[in-house]
Design brief:
alpha/beta; Nucleotidyltransferase, domain 5; Integrase core domain protein; Integrase_cat-core; RNaseH_sf; RNaseH-like_sf
Amino acid sequence: RQQKVTVPTTYTASGPCQVWSWDITGLPSVVRGRWYYLYIITDLYSRKITGYEVHETESGEQAAALMQRSVMREGCWRHPLVLHADNGAAMKSQTLQMKLHELNITPSHSRPRVSNDNAYAESLFRTLKYVPQWPSSGFRTLSDARQWVDKFTRWYNETHRHSGIRYVTPSER
């Protein structure tokens, strides 16, 4: 029996609000084994972080609410938007899929077991976790994690000169 070969899903964007990539990463707590979860969305064209939230759990309901708020805040509801993600439970949840349909967003997912199909989100996580300000001993509280991510996002969008967009900031693009 032949194995089905899956072709990578690739999207390009010639302007903002065309293709977004999103993922969830764990932020360590000072309590061993406890995590906070950062949901983050980035625009492929500008590399701008268009939405983010930190929660104590991963869920499709929280993801759907974040998508709704991000689309409205960025003014993308009139654009044909593609949302790319990996195959995590929150990304594939029925609640999120229904919200994407309601918002007229086309969902796209990475190939199973191919870690670099969501490279934009993974690259953003590397930047996040390797900045000198990263609290290597973990976050004391959910509030501390949220405040740190707020500061990081402002820096990333307004100050960080991104190599993938000719060394301008995401907000300038």
